[in-house]
Amino acid sequence: MSSLDEILAAIRQNLPAQKVAYPELPSFEKQGTNLKDQFKVNLGLAGGESYDVESIAEAQEIMLKNLPDTRVSCSAAPEWEGTKSLNAIAHPRDLDDVDLGIIRAEFGVAEMGMIWLTENSLKVNSLGFLSQHLAILLDPDAITENMHTAYSDIDFQASTYGCFVMGPSATADIGAYLVRGAQGARSLTVFFIKETK
Amino acid sequence: MSKVRVDQNAADFIYMDDIHQPTHDKNLWNARMKRDLAASGIPEWEQMRDLASQIKEHTLTHLDQYVEQFVTEATKRGVIVHFAKDDIEHNQTVYDILKSHNATKVVKSKSMLQEECEMGAFLEARGIEMIETDLGERIQQLSGEMPSHIVMPAIHKTTADVAELFARTIGTNPDEDDPTQLTEAMRNNARPKFLEAHAGLTGANFAIAETGAFVVCTNEGNADLTASIPPLHIASIGIEKILPKTRDLALFIRLLSRSALGTPATRYTSHFMGPRETGTEMHIVLTDNGRSRRLGMEDFWRSLKCIRCGACMNTCPVYRRSGGLAYGATYSGPIGIIIDPTFDESKFSELPFHSSLCGSCSEVCPVRINIAEQIGLWRQRMVNINESSKALHYAFGAVEKVFANPKLFRLAEKAAYYGMKLTPNWLLYNTKLNAWGKHRELPEIKKETFRDWYIKNRLKK
Amino acid sequence: MRVGLFIPCYIDAIYPEVGIATLELLERLGVEVVVPLNQTCCGQPMGNEGDQKNAASSEQLFCDNFEGFDYIVGPAGSCVKHVRMHFDAIPQTEKVKHVRKTTYELVEFLTDILKVKEFPWASYKHKVAIHNSCSAIRGLHIQSRSEWQEPYFNKTEQLLTMVEGVTIKQITRPDECCGFGGTFCVTDEAVSVKMGQDKVADYLNHEVDCIVSPDMSCLMHQEGIAKRGKAPIKFVHIAQVLNNGPF
């Protein structure tokens, strides 16, 4: 097989003579954006729901009303106890039976209605994707304006995996018809609540 | 190797029936309209395109530096990096990794590079069961076809086609033609495959030199399922996917899905920095397969800026009426006709001519690839290497003599006038002799040309 | 101002009335117009197909014919685009460079150079759709590009609104290619025709009775399709409308 040096040699042999400089990149922040409002709107456009709650109990009640058939819940957030403990997991596939996954997002992005998750918040990565539905806890003050501000906040050395999740999963691959709940979560609900230590 | 007759394939698609081509055209035009709508909400949109183009051109003109940095950083994070100079080395490397881990069942999220290398057939011939997890790719896998569009692989199929396919292959009710139910059926069919897989294969949309991380964008979450369950993750990455810094990602994520589908981003933007936990492994197969050679082509290297958004396909009036399969290659549409000839100048020699040169592709490209200009330059190259239509070249040779000689030109005009006047319609409109006349009335050549009139009415006065 | 009138090959043979309208219009606007008698073709059909060798003598003949004018004006967007942006099958002498730089399409000549504000002699009581060719839009930029985030403008529309009686209708896909594309119209006949049929259907859906364009090459293809389908639509060049004939 080829080596790095062979690949580099092939590239060096073919580099265009005229070089192009690396540009300055602005952060495109806009004045006077209400980050939480913008986040809610964009999350909604992506098919997600959001609620302001005073307590975890309130959030749990809402999820019970919205998804009454939930049997197995599994939480990566200590503040919310699920029926299935993450400590009992031997393999990521063991989360296959989870109806509701609960995760505290590390922060949100207003421009997109995205939340940022890593293995630190997920504990077991597959929780975010095998769960049939997701309940996300988000500190309303932990919302950054856009992708530029978001990336400047992330330390990529602090995890081996990170995902921006924007609403539930979806596809339009059959006849260009939008269907929610393609492979990942069928629904995604965000609860604005500060972390209870 | 026989040439791809893209014009004939396109005609077959158009004449298939009254449903497929019009539906295809409508759906992709909608995607183009959604792109425009998404862009209209971003005041800095044109500036973003300029910056994205510049970052890509900077990276490509310094590519060796950034490849080296990427490899160093990824290796530091515990990723095992392999190098493949071509498709054969790529496929062999992937196979060797799987074999050494006794992996015979594999799930795969979308990778155009793996398509390009025809990895699927290679692995299947060696006893590896490989399941596509992107819904569109899975539809194509089940029907034994290549993807027809970079972002929407099965967009040329109607819902009825998919219903028939699923009934035949995954046991759904043949009368079930509701997209929601069909998607649900595939969700349930695919799920066990993720759970049982020995390895997960992905591509990468972007690879960051600064951190050694790579990024995969999906709407279904299938890349995350592919990577979070099996203990082995192999990512195939083309050398042109590299970006210098994390901060560059912000720009490209903001441009990619808006250009592709008109949504602000894909639902999942997954970043992989290293193996998940002890006991798991992450491998990268960093692949050239003609990319460095393309970098050395003065007229065509800018095609390497492509971020695979498919906006050029959505806007292309010719692509929308041809269907992607007409091009007979991994990459179709405008980007396809300027990339594919670099893989085989003879087989794909007709592709650059499958364009009306409208130029819309260049205008939608988020990284400002001069696609239309490159199409023109490919045509020149095809003529120069004798791969273009010989009939047309000879015809032009004859026509050139007429145009070079004003007297001969005027004679030809008169001859054409009388010729048309004297030829009976049944001969004039014979569809074998006259392609124009198949579906169009012929224009009328006038007895008195403009020049005749000018001499009579202006000079002789 | 001494202007050389560029009469494309197909205008000379098929649409001489467009040439006549252009000549008369420019004369009405006070321009001294000269028509080189030995012009033939600009070489675009060959150039577009990559056949530089067989485009060269047409390009050279053009430059020889059009030496020594302040401007060269032609009622054809795609031909003018070829001259301005692609005339590179021949050595780029100072003469060639000057000819290329000063060749204008009629609409842009009227709006940008002559800056015409009225056509008091013209009247055209029709429901009109404007067709600007792809060459004119994306090459010569006589209309804003719908693919870009840029302010709307349309030089053809600007001129037509100065003509009494004209009602301008917007169709659904105003700047989608009609499918002519030069020899593409016969080498890729099925796709070309489908594109043209869709364009004509768009006109019919908006009840226009006339298509006005600065490019007869596109209209030749669209009209061929419309006539075969017996669609009751007329196709005219903008010079004919602005000059009030001949039709």
TrEMBL record, chain A:
Location of the LUD domain: 94-193
InterPro entries xrefs: FTHF_cligase-like_sf, LUD_dom, NagB/RpiA_transferase-like
Origin superkingdom: Bacteria
SUPFAM superfamilies xrefs: NagB/RpiA/CoA transferase-like
One Pfam family this sequence matches: LUD_dom
Protein name, per record: Lactate utilization protein C
Source organism of this protein record: Sphingobacterium anhuiense
From TrEMBL, chain B:
PROSITE patterns assigned to the protein according to its UniProt record, in alphabetical order: 4FE4S_FER_1, 4FE4S_FER_2
InterPro entries the UniProt entry points to: 4Fe4S_Fe-S-bd, 4Fe4S_Fe_S_CS, FTHF_cligase-like_sf, Helical_ferredxn, LUD_dom, LutB/LldF, LutB_C, NagB/RpiA_transferase-like
Highest taxon, organism lineage: Bacteria
TM regions (residue ranges): none
All residue ranges annotated as the 4Fe-4S ferredoxin-type domain in the record: 297-318
The entry's keywords: 4Fe-4S, Electron transport, Iron, Iron-sulfur, Metal-binding, Repeat, Transport
Keyword Flavoprotein part of the UniProt annotation: no
PANTHER family: LACTATE UTILIZATION PROTEIN B
Name the UniProt record assigns to this protein: Lactate utilization protein B
Native organism: Sphingobacterium anhuiense
